[in-house]
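[Meeting: bench + compute handoff]

Bench side (C.D.) handed over the final construct sequence. Compute side (W.E.) agreed to return the predicted structure before the next meeting so the bench team could plan truncations. Sequence as handed over:
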Amino acid sequence: MVFELPKDLKTAELSLHESMLLSIRAQERGRWTINLKFEGLKLMPIVFRMHKTLLAEKIQSLLCWPDAGATALAKHSEPEFKQSIVSFSDVIKNKDNITNNKILIAVSPQPHDYEEFEQISNTYSDTIVILNGKLEDAAVGIGSVARQRRRAFLSQWRDSYWLEPLENGALMHIYPNQWSLFKSGPNGYSFLSNFDNKPTPEIVFENLS
């Protein structure tokens, strides 16, 4: 099947929302990732639009930021959603009082957030969605046992949505479809090929060369 790249962020978000809903309905207590791989992208408005889409489908969600500063800024930006905005430490400290029948959206967790996020993931009983996370980057000096544990943890996560501009093209995945690779040219992007799994950098390079 041939797919087309979204023409703008608004179109991309529509397909993202569709993919997100299909994903969370496909697997109870699912572990999903969503990635919009654009430099300088402002995630907060995107998170709130995801939240509104879920509410329209009568699905509750917790919007979870790694640190207190970002959490406070989110509450200030959207006070109407204040009760749905939490930090990682909020979830850990109040795990017995956090309602688990809500989708937890973790906003851009980084390698230094790994320990806290793993703790949350191992105790949270409902679906978790990572938005633009970078947990796969192992910390410098981490031991082999810790690396293996991290790899095992990350292997539990499935890609719901991926959109990434490349030097000579773009890579896209919209669950439950295949991965699609596009090549850029004078007239825009042209579809190259589909893949059952995320293509490696080597495969991408070979196809775009």
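W.E. noted at the follow-up: The first helix runs from residue 9 to 26. C.D. will use this when planning the next construct.
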